[in-house]
Amino acid sequence: MFHQKLLEMKNRNSLSRRSFIRNVSLASGGLVLACNVPSSKNEIQKYLDNSESFSPNLFVQLKSNGELILTASRSEMGQGIRTALTSVIADEMDADWTKVIVKQATGNAIYGNQNTDGSRSVRTMFEPMREMGAMARMMLVTAAANKWNIDETDCKTENHYVINKINNERIFYGDLAEDASKQNAPIAVVLKSPKDFVYIGKGLTSVDVKDFSSGKAKYGMDIRIPNMKFATIERCPVTFGSVKSYNKKNALDVKGVLDVMELPRVEKPFGPLGGVVIIAENTWAAIKGKEALEVTWDFGDNEGYNSEEYMNKITKNVHKKGKEIKNEGNVNSAFKKADVLLESTFQLPHLVHAPMEVPNATAHVQGDKCEVWAPVQAPQTARKEISDYLGIDLDNVTVNVTFLGGGFGRKSKPDYMVEAAAISKMINAPVQVIWTREDDIQHSYYHAVSAQYMKGSLDKNGNVTGWLHRTAYPSITSTFAAGVTHGAGFEFQQGMTNIPYEIENIRCENGEAIAHVRIGWLRSVYNIIHGFSVNVFVDELAVAAKRDPLEFRLNLIGSDRKYVSDSEYKLDTARLKNVLKMAATNAGWGKKLPNGHGMGLAVHYSFYSYVASVVEVSVIENKLKIHNVYSVIDCGRFVNSNTIKAQMEGAAIFGMSLAYYGKITAKNGAIEQSNYHDYKMLRINEAPNIQVEIVKSEDIPTGVGEPGVPVIAPAIINAIYNATGKRYKNLPLEDFGLV
Amino acid sequence: MVQLSVNGKMHEINVAPEMPILWAIRDIIGLTGTKYGCGTGICGSCSVLLDGSSVRSCITPVSVAVGKEITTIEGVEGVNKGLLDAWEEFNVPQCGYCQPGQLVSAVALLNKIPNPSDEDIDIAMSGNICRCGTYTRIRKAIHSAAASNDVKV
Question: What is the ipTM of this complex?
Answer without folding.
Answer: 0.98
